[in-house]
Specification:
2 domains, disordered C terminus, alpha/beta, 6-stranded parallel β-sheet, 18 helices, TIM Barrel
């Protein structure tokens, strides 16, 4: 029992942790920061919910809303202002206490903090700033923090928060301005993209200030696009100087803690030489299935976000019907989990395999075949490029073979220097041939006598994937874990459980 935390705070936690479960824009942090011997906590490259460190530890973060009160009436949101739900709000001190107490008990390694809108975006972001400032400077919490940037807040508060958090995200929500306008009448596409651009520029300036490249290395960003974005940065030193001048303007923080108030007025303790601005990058989220946008629109928007804003990740969230509205799917409609899964696979192809959205889909074929993964879907529509000869294909060509990933392609390229590969040789170096066997040759021969024909290959591939597809569409554990569920631990142990516990298997 958390005796240091009051019953009132725990009741708020139950409500606000449950309200946060529909925001999926969090994953491996990408930030690495070891303990400094003074502050409490650290941030590892995989230091976030449902991820693992290099030594195999599963680490998590406290994922909550600051408040579920909201002045907006987004049709898809359970916390829309017109819904009759119990409303509660944390104070900055309460969030700090929860984070610190849970960290001390080894429940979490960090914090994911989002919020509804109280009074105004600016007021809400000021409260979030106060929370982060107290965590870093009063409670000396050095762990991972992911915070939501709220469109409509001033650039001054976004700047100040950026030096206190590890990652910041601004949710795009939907891929088209029309879709957003229909279901979120209080939000505008321009107001969302503006803070995303501001955060991007802040990250670039900070990286250059510390002597690093202004952009992340992504396969699809060509040299021209790189220099076009580089041209936006005219003088990093001048921008930093302007930052310090702008901080003196941001004085509207009347309800903040005295310690945070002092920082707000001076702006001196925010920018530390050893800290980057949003070091883990920024991300965003799009909802899948709430409106009628197709996969092509989602994927081209995703690609544009990576290219224009250099995002760390774009997350997809299968819509769970929560509200009755003629513009939304009916209550009880199953969330499109398999479609979400295919979009994540396609996102991976964009980021690491050199694919472009226009190669995977088109206006004439705007949706993925959910029965096969996107790379297989692409290969089936481009059979003229197959089979690929393993001993002659380039690294880039190998990456486009279904079933061959980055590691397998690198192993093949290395192994070819010493010998001519056959199928047994591929197995020995760890290449999985479940899908690849239909699209490759070794020494000019296929593994089996297989016709390179779309219908035949589609039947073979869908048959192999049918079980995993069914499990994605019918998950048994598709839910956010709760701090308040015992996961049936009150049930008596079985004989098998007793045996495993004695042998150390449980």
């Amino acid at each position: 029992m958390l005796t240091a935390i009051s019953a009132d705070i725990m009741e708020k936690l139950k409500i606000l942790s449950d309200a946060a479960k529909f925001d999926v824009a969090c994953t491996s942090s990408g930030a690495s920061r070891s303990g400094n011997g003074t502050d409490m906590g650290s941030a590892f490259a995989s230091g976030i919910c449902h991820s693992f460190t290099a030594d195999g530890r599963c680490i998590s973060l406290l994922k909550i809303l600051f408040t579920n009160e909201c002045i907006y009436d987004c049709k898809y949101c359970i916390n829309r202002c017109t819904n009759d739900v119990e409303r509660v709000t944390f104070t900055p001190e309460e969030v700090c206490k929860l984070t610190v107490e849970f960290y001390r008990r080894n429940y979490i390694e960090g914090l994911f903090l989002s919020s509804g809108i109280i009074e105004s975006p600016e007021h809400t972001m000021q409260l979030l700033y106060t929370t982060l400032f107290l965590l870093r400077n009063k409670y000396h919490f050095n762990g991972y923090i992911h915070i939501k940037g709220i469109p409509g807040a001033s650039s001054e508060v976004l700047e100040m928060i950026g030096y206190l958090c590890d990652r910041m995200s601004v949710n795009l929500e939907l891929p088209t301005a029309e879709g957003l306008r229909a279901v979120a009448p209080n939000k505008a596409r321009k107001n969302i993209l503006t803070p995303m651009r501001f955060i991007q520029n802040g990250i670039k300036d900070s990286r250059m200030y510390h002597g690093n490249s202004s952009m992340k290395n992504r396969m699809y960003i060509d040299e021209q696009a790189y220099y076009e974005q580089m041209a936006e940065i005219k003088d990093s030193t001048a921008r930093l100087s302007e930052y310090h001048r702008s901080l003196r303007v941001a004085t509207d923080c009347g309800k903040a803690d005295k310690l945070a108030q002092k920082s707000w007025e001076s702006g001196l303790s925010i920018k530390r030489p050893d800290r980057y601005y949003v070091p883990a990058g920024q991300s965003t989220q799009m909802i899948i299935g709430a409106t009628q946008e197709n996969d092509y629109q989602l994927l081209t928007t995703t690609q544009a976000l990576y290219q224009k804003f250099d995002l760390k990740r774009v997350f997809f969230s299968a819509y769970v019907p929560l509200n009755e509205d003629p513009l939304l799917p009916d209550l009880g409609t199953a969330p499109p989990l398999l479609r979400e899964h295919r979009l994540y696979q396609a996102d991976w192809l964009l980021r690491f395999y050199g694919f472009h959205a226009e190669e995977l889909l088109s206006p004439g074929r705007p949706n993925f075949n959910v029965l096969v993964d996107p790379k297989c879907d692409w290969a089936l529509r481009h059979l003229e490029l197959f089979p690929v000869e393993i001993n002659r294909a380039s690294y880039e060509e190998l990456l486009r073979v279904p079933g061959i990933g980055v590691k397998s392609a690198m192993r093949i390229v290395r192994a070819r220097h010493g010998s001519v590969l056959d199928f047994d040789g591929l197995k020995k170096i760890g290449v999985v041939l479940k899908r690849a066997k239909y699209f490759i040759t070794c020494k000019g021969k296929m593994m089996y006598s297989i016709p390179i024909e779309e219908d035949f290959l589609t039947r073979q591939l869908t048959g192999e994937d049918s079980r995993s597809n069914w499990e994605i569409e019918h998950p048994k554990t598709y839910r956010q874990l709760s701090l308040f569920e015992d996961m049936n631990m009150e049930m008596p142990p079985t004989v098998e459980d007793v045996g495993k516990s004695v042998s150390g298997q449980l």
